[in-house]
Amino acid sequence: RGIPREPGAHWTEPGCQSCTCQGGRVLCDTVSCSVPCSHPLPAPAGGCCPTCMGCLHEGVARAEGDVFSPSDGNCTVCVCLAGNVSCLSPECPPGSCPSPSLADCCSCNPDKCNFRGRIYAHGARFSLDGDDCTTCVCQGGEVECSFTPCPMLDCPQHQRHLGPGQCCSTCRDPPAPAGCFLDDNGVEFPVGQIWSPGDPCELCICQADGSVSCQRTDCVETCPYPIRIPGQCCPDCSAGCTYMGRTFSNNETFPSALDPCLSCICLVR
Fold first, then answer.
1. Residue-wise pLDDT tens digits, 155-179
2. How many angstroms from the chain centroid is the CA of residue 233?
3. Which residue spans within 82-174 are E strands per DSSP?
4. pTM for this structure?
5. CA of residue 249 relative to chain centroid, distance
6. What 3-state DSSP class applies to 221?
7. Among candidates 214, 212, 234, which has minimal Cα distance to 222?
8. For the segment 75-94, what is each residue's pLDDT rounded down to a tens digit?
9. What are the residue boundaries of the structural domains of the chain, listed by start?
10. Least buried of 108, 198, 237, 256, by fewest C-beta within 10 Å?
């Protein structure tokens, strides 16, 4: 090919041909590659032999020391070392799975539970004979029992009641109030009692539920000279007249305080 070669020279021609110059003749043969690994990478550009500086696994190139899981492996872990791929699968114990991590990787059949002469499947929930307050569950051959949870009660302890055959306490109905207790003065009025809290124009009544209902009285009767009676809400127009600070009875005559020549009379109308 126009290139002089020394006797005994070795070189590589395109197409991975290994050639030698012997006695003026060129002898060529296909390059023989020795690959000492199970998953070599393809020959790099310009090279003839695959390389073990990495791995080719399931068509995916892996770098040296790369740890990976195969696409169809069930918890199998593989590592690339010097062109070789080594994989490790978990050891699955027979029967039940002792840990949740193995249950995700192994095909396990959880053990059934033999409890008090009965067989329960894994995950089954049941109550003890005659005791509905206890709930049991079968977990991998073992039975775990616990008390039925009870709701939180918002009533005091003395109002809680546990009925026959019940698992949880309930709140008793509070006793009906016997009357109305007033915190300000400590007086208790019976149901239906009517009283005035200090203002004669206001009346209060003790309700059946223990509450107090109060209402003011509106005075509709008016007269020019009413008589105010202590402790009474509305003025009295039928008892007489009040004039200049003095009280006079009906039809009573008295001199005027402004003019002694005038005589006045109290007339109730």
1. 888 888 888 878 888 888 876 667 7
2. 60
3. 84-88, 113-115, 118-120, 125-128, 131-139, 142-147, 160-161, 170-171
4. 0.34
5. 80
6. coil
7. 234
8. 788 999 999 999 888 777 66
9. 9-88, 113-147, 180-216
10. 198
